[in-house]
């Protein structure tokens, strides 16, 4: 039990800021508990009045008081629930933000091992469970705990200390037994959660490949797999549910036994003239009142156990640390020199994606990166932006290892355009500024003018307000690259890495891209992973990669002059293809 409680302690910091609300909540809980506890005393007074045939005029006020309490209690409960949910939503929203930021700061190695579906389940699904738990924990555990103590205290003080002691022991015994039985259900809940996360990842992954799946008629395979995963979840869930139901029924039996014992004790006390007859009724009432909080604590325990699976997962996620750390060297604001010194990198052990790669790209120069597919071109970009850490060698920026610079500064200084430009379901403006409201429309239009993209802007039906959809193919590959060139231009990085779109681009867009690129590259250091010879003809240097190794590196002009160079051969081949 303590290990479960310990799991929750780190999250108390999210409640600390809300102490005034928590105090208010506690007062409400206390108020509704007092109302519940005094109700049987009113009934007792009512019965006493009838039995002793006192002034019957008291009966009506007592009945009205009873009614008043009956109305006040649900109103207080409503406020409790509202306040509890409010506190818990505020706290868990904060946790959700912290978790999202944490995930974003983790390196790519972590993200390749965990699918987006799995992270969504962890960041959202498990935090939602925690939210449920916080509100129910605050409300149910505290209010039921207060109620239990209140009832047993009232029995001890108003009926008999011995009866109070017996019922207190009985209650503790029931809770312990229930707790022990519940421990059996915990691994089952955990397993069900894990299976659910796997199913979400599966669905997410298959949905992202919808086009391929539909065109190849693989839907039935996906559905079969989905059905088998759902069946597995159902089986685990049912086993957990059965374990809970067994415990619940056992508790009911316990309480029936407890009521009999309490009545027996009451009757004995009445016979011994220790209490009047109506107090036997009060004892019976209190004993039946005990069952609800104990039962609810059991229910609460079930949620707590479900939640501890979530909390353990959240802890696990928070314990993930990025293997990539930055330093605090300030970065110069002008164009930067990029150098690779004997850099080797493996994604998978014993398989080199880059091996012993060295080159120097002087500040303000452009490098055309060529090589067959899988030769390591994108890996150069990933290492330079520190998405991965090379196993050996050093990458230098202005003569200093890149790990000396703060990660945020480095990523601000290096702008990258990948082949898969992500289009957000938002306006062109937001897609260009990446939701930065501080960039005015004038600045955007000026940037587009400089990149010679005003015609493109004019063609958009609603200009900057045109909404692009991330689902539909809103832009062609070329247009998406145009958009990301402008995006980068607004960010003004010192180094640019462009992984050029390999798909066919129409001549008009190609011309726009070339113009915009020329503008963007002015005064900046750039690495262009080129798929078109036309682009490479604009660069100063050429690096040809072959199986992760440098096959050729040099000035473009010089390489072109050497007939036996790899680049000149590529050029001749491409020119030949064009002529054919
Ligand atoms: N996340 C990864 N895990 C394991 N291996 C990877 C990963 N990413 C790339 N690789 C492998 O590393 C090698 C270099 O990949 P890289 O993406 O750098 O090649 P590339 O030259 O950019 O290819 P392309 O022109 O097709 O984009 C390839 O063999 C690739 O299969």
Automatic annotation (TrEMBL):
- ABC transporter domain boundaries: 338-572
**Highest taxon above the source species:** Bacteria
Any transmembrane segments, and where? 21-42, 54-72, 137-156, 162-181, 254-274
What the entry lists under SMART domains is as follows:
AAA
> Which residues does the UniProt record annotate as the domain ABC transmembrane type-1?
23-306
Q: Does the keyword Membrane apply?
A: yes
Where in the cell is the protein located?
A: Cell membrane
Pfam families given for it? ABC_membrane, ABC_tran
Q: Which keywords has UniProt assigned to this entry?
A: ATP-binding, Cell membrane, Membrane, Nucleotide-binding, Transmembrane, Transmembrane helix, Transport
Q: Give the way it sits in the membrane.
A: Multi-pass membrane protein
One GO MF term attached to the UniProt entry: ATP hydrolysis activity
Any single GO CC term annotated in Swiss-Prot or TrEMBL for this entry: plasma membrane
**Keyword Transmembrane helix on entry:** yes
Instruction: Give the protein's recorded name.
Output: ATP-binding cassette subfamily B protein/ATP-binding cassette subfamily C protein
């Amino acid at each position: 039990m303590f290990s479960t409680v310990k799991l929750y302690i780190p999250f108390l910091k999210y409640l600390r800021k809300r102490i005034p609300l928590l105090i208010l909540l506690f007062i409400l809980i206390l108020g509704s508990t007092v109302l519940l506890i005094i109700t049987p005393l009113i009934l007792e007074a009512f019965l006493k009045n009838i039995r002793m045939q006192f002034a019957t005029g008291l009966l009506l006020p007592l009945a009205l008081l009873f009614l008043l309490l009956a109305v006040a209690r649900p109103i207080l409960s409503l406020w409790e629930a509202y306040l509890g949910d409010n506190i818990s939503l505020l706290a868990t929203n904060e946790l959700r933000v912290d978790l999202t930021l944490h995930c974003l700061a983790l390196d790519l190695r972590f993200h390749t091992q965990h699918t987006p579906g799995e992270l969504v389940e962890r960041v959202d699904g498990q935090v939602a469970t925690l939210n449920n738990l916080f509100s129910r924990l605050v409300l149910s555990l505290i209010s039921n705990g207060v109620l239990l103590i209140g009832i047993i205290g009232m029995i001890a003080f108003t009926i008999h200390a011995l009866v109070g002691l017996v019922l207190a022991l009985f209650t503790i015994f029931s809770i312990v037994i229930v707790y022990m039985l519940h421990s059996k259900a915990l691994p089952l809940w955990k397993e069900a959660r894990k299976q659910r996360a796997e199913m979400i990842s599966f669905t997410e992954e298959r949905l992202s490949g919808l086009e391929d799946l539909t065109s190849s008629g693989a839907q039935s395979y996906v559905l079969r797999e989905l059905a088998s995963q759902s069946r597995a979840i159902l089986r685990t869930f049912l086993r957990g549910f059965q374990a809970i139901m067994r415990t619940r029924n056992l508790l009911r039996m316990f309480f029936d036994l407890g009521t009999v014992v309490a009545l027996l004790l009451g009757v004995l006390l009445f016979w011994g003239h220790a209490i009047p007859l109506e107090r036997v009724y009060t004892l019976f009432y209190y004993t039946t009142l005990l069952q609800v909080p104990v039962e609810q604590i059991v229910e609460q325990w079930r949620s707590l156990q479900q939640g501890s699976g979530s909390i353990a997962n959240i802890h696990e996620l928070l314990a993930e640390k990025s293997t990539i750390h930055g330093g605090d060297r300030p970065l110069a604001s002008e164009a930067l020199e990029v150098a690779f010194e004997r850099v080797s990198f493996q994604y998978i052990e014993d398989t080199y994606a880059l091996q012993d790669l060295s080159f120097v790209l002087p500040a303000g120069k452009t490098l055309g990166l060529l090589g067959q597919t899988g030769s390591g071109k994108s890996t150069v970009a990933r290492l330079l932006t520190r998405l991965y850490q090379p196993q050996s060698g050093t990458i230098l920026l202005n003569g200093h290892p890149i790990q000396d610079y703060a990660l945020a500064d480095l990523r601000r200084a290096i702008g990258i355009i990948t082949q898969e430009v992500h289009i957000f379901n938002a306006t062109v403006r937001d897609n260009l500024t990446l939701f930065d409201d501080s960039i005015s429309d004038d600045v955007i239009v000026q940037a587009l003018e400089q990149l010679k993209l005003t015609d493109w802007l004019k063609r958009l039906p609603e200009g900057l307000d045109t909404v692009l959809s991330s689902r539909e193919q809103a832009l062609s590959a070329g247009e998406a690259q145009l958009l990301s060139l402008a995006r980068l231009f607004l960010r003004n990085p010192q180094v640019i890495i462009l992984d050029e779109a390999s798909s066919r681009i129409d001549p008009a867009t190609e011309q726009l891209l070339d113009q915009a690129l020329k503008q963007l590259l002015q005064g900046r250091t750039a690495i262009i992973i080129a798929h078109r010879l036309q682009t490479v003809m604009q660069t100063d240097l050429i690096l040809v990669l072959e199986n992760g190794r440098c096959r050729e590196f040099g000035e473009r002009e010089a390489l072109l002059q050497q007939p036996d160079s790899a680049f000149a051969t590529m050029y001749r081949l491409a020119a030949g293809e064009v002529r054919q």
